[in-house]
Amino acid sequence: MFRRTVLKSVAALPLLSLSHPLLAAPPATGTARRRLRPADAAWPAAAEWQKLRAAVGGNLLEVRPLFGACESAPDGAACLDVYKNIRNPFYIGDQPGGTQVSGYLNAWTPAPSVWAVRARHAADVAAAVNFARTHNLRLVVKGGAHSYLGTSNAPDSLLIWTRAMKQVTLHDAFVARGCEGKVPPVPAVSSGAGAVWIDLYGAVTTRAGRYVQGGGCTSVGVAGLIQSGGFGSFSKGFGNAAAGLLEAEVVTADGQVRIVNACTDPDLFWALKGGGGGTFGVVTRLTLRTHALPEYFGAAWGTVKAHSDDAFRRLIARFLAFYASSLANPHWGEQVAVQPGNSLKISMVQQGLGREEARAVWKPFFDWIGASADYTATEELGAGARKAQSWWQIEGNRSMIPDLRADAAPGQGWWQGDQDQVGAYLHGYDSLWLPASLLKETGPTRLTQALFAASRHKEVGLHFNKGLAFAPSEAIRASLDTAMNPAVTEAFALAIIADGERPSYPGMKRPPMDLEAARGDAHAIDLATQELRRLAPQAGSYLSESNYFNKAWQRAYFGEHYPRLQAIKKKYDPAGLFFVHNGVGSEEWSADGFTRVSGARA
Ligand SMILES: Cc1cc2nc3c(=O)[nH]c(=O)nc-3n(C[C@H](O)[C@H](O)[C@H](O)COP(=O)(O)OP(=O)(O)OC[C@H]3O[C@@H](n4cnc5c(N)ncnc54)[C@H](O)[C@@H]3O)c2cc1C
C-alpha cells in the first residue's frame, strides 16, 4: 500500500531528468496503420523492455489477470486472497490487472496489458509514452479502474498505471503558473493522478474542514473523474467536478511534461475538463479549487409502495411537484428510483441544511403519503443531517465499510450503498439528461407517464446531482466552461437505467451466467430508455455513465463542443497515440484501437 502525505505547502514541479534516452522525446510522427501485438516480429525485444525498466526505476510489471493466480494454483494463498478481497474496491484498485467492473455484456471483458509501468512521477509517464510511441504500441492509462466502458483496460498493450502517485497537498493561496497578477489566489488542493476521492475528502474535509467537489463513490480515481466531467452528491451546489480544476500537469503524446491552466494552454486545459480520460495525454497531477465547508450535510430516505398502478402514477406526479417546489435548489442531490413494483425509493442527500430544516422540507410530502391508504412505507421515511466535517470519516460511520486489510491506508472505506457495484458485471447501461422544462406546464404529466411506462421495463434512477439546473449561477458558469455537453446545465437530473449481476471476472469460479436472462435485461433497459427518450429525443448522456453502444456518442457526451475537442486532439495527439472506446478521435481507429481506419497520413 502506498503512503499518503498531506503537506501544507505549494507543490513543487518534480525535477525531471531529461538525460535518459527514453525521456528525450523523438518527434510525434507516428503514421503507422497498425499497432504491434506481442506476436509481431517487430514487438520490442527483451533488451528494449529492459531499457524501459531502467528508465522507470525498475517499475515495469508483468500484468496478470485479477484471477491469474487461480489458474496455476486454485488452492494457493494468492488465489484465496483474491476471493477474500474481491468485494473490496480498494483491493481491486491496488492490482495492476484490476478493473472495478467485471465486464459488460457483448461490450468488453477484462483482459490485462502485457506490461505496466507503475508510474511514480511525470518522468516515468514520459518514458512510457515515448516507448509506446517509438515502438508503435497500444497504450492504455489506468487510475482508479472505474471505467464502465472498459477504457482503462486493453489486451496486448502497455499500461501506464498511476496508482502510486498519491500525494495530496493543500494550498491556502494557489495561483496557477502564468496566471500571477491575472487571477486572485484561491484555496486549493493538489492531487497526484493516482489518488482516489477518499484521499482528498480525508485531507480536505475531515482534516482541514474545507470542501472539494469530487465524485460520490470514494474509490473512483481523481484524474479519471475530472476528465469525464464528474459529479458528486453535492454537485447541485458546486457544479461538476471538472469546473473546479485550476491546473493540471500532463504528459502529451510527444512526451512533453506540460503544466496547463487557463493562462498557459487554455485549449488543452479545457479539454481535460470533461473531454474524456485517456484521450489528450496522461494527467500526472491536478489542482482543484476548495470551498468553505457547509456546516451540515444530510439525507432523506425511505421507500413508498403504491397499492395500484393508478396510485403509483399519482405518487410519481406528486413527487415531481414536490421536487419542483421544494427540492429544486442547490441543497438537494442524489437520487430517487422509480421501481417496477410500484415503489418509489428515496436516497437523497443535501448540503447546508440542519436536521430540523431538512425534516421540515420533507414533512408535507411524507404527511401526504401517511394520510393515504393507497401507500405503505416499506422502508421508514426520514430526513436528517450531521456535521459536514465528519461526513467522510470512516471510523464510527455506520454508512461506510472500512478497508480492513492489514496494509490498507488509514481512512479508507466505501459507502454501504456502493457495495453492490463492486466488481459488478453489466447487462446494460444508459443515461440521459432530462431538461428542466419537463417540470413546467404539461411537462410533469408527460414525465409522469413516461416514468411509469419506463418502470414497467426497468427501474429508473433520477440522479438530481448529475443535472445542474437550479445550481447557483457561479457553479453553472464554471461548469459551462468545461468540455461536458452544455445540456447538463439545463437538465434537472440525469436518468440512469442500468442493471447487471454479481462479479463475473474471467477465471472466477461462480455459477454460469444465464445469458438469455442477461440479454433480456439489456433489452428491457433499451425499452425503458426509449420511453424517456420520446420526451427528450436529443437528450445528452454522461460519458462516464453511458451506453457502450451509443452510436451518437459525440453529440450525446459533448454536444456542440465536439468539433473543438477534435481540433485539440489533432493538435496535441496528431498520430492518435491515445485511444479509448468512444473517445474524441476514436472514429479513426478500429474498435480495439489497433488499426487506423481513416485519417492516416500516407
Ligand atoms: C462503482 C462506480 C461508481 C461511480 N461513481 C461515480 C460518481 O459518483 N460520480 C461520477 O461522476 N462518476 C462515477 N463513476 C464513473 C467514474 O467517474 C468514471 O468511470 C471515471 O472515469 C473513473 O475514473 P477512474 O480513474 O476510477 O477509472 P479508470 O478506469 O482508471 O479511468 C477512466 C478513464 O480515464 C482514463 N484515465 C485515468 N487516469 C488517467 C490519467 N491520469 N490521465 C489520463 N487518462 C486517465 C482512463 O484511461 C480511462 O479511459 C463511477 C463508476 C463506477 C464503476
Helix content: 25-40%
Largest sheet: 8 strands, mixed
- Bulk shape: globular
* List of distinct ligands in this structure: flavin-adenine dinucleotide
- Tell how many strands the DSSP assignment holds: 22
Mean pLDDT: 94
Low-confidence stretches: 1-30
Class per helix and strand makeup: alpha+beta
Instruction: Report the β-strand fraction as a percent range.
Output: 15-25%
Strand order of the largest sheet: 3-20-22-21-15-16-14-17
Q: What characteristics describe this protein?
A:
602 residues, alpha+beta, eight-stranded mixed beta sheet, disordered N terminus
Report on the structure:
The chain is of the alpha+beta class and 602 residues long. 27% of the residues lie in helices and 22% in strands. The protein contains 16 helices and 22 strands. The strands form five sheets. Strands 3-20-22-21-15-16-14-17 form an eight-stranded mixed beta sheet. Strand 10 and strand 11 form a beta hairpin. Helix 12 packs antiparallel against helix 14 (515-533). The chain is globular. Mean pLDDT is 94; it is low at 1-30.
Topology:
Blueprint: E1 6-8, H1 46-55, E2 60-62, H2 68-72, H3 77-85, H4 89-93, E3 103-104, E4 115-118, H5 122-135, E5 139-142, E6 158-161, E7 168-174, E8 186-192, H6 197-206, E9 210-211, H7 222-227, H8 235-238, E10 245-251, E11 257-261, H9 266-272, E12 282-289, E13 291-292, E14 296-306, H10 309-327, E15 332-339, E16 343-351, H11 355-370, E17 375-387, E18 400-402, E19 413-415, E20 425-435, H12 443-455, E21 460-463, H13 473-480, E22 491-501, H14 515-533, H15 553-558, H16 562-572
Bound molecules: flavin-adenine dinucleotide.
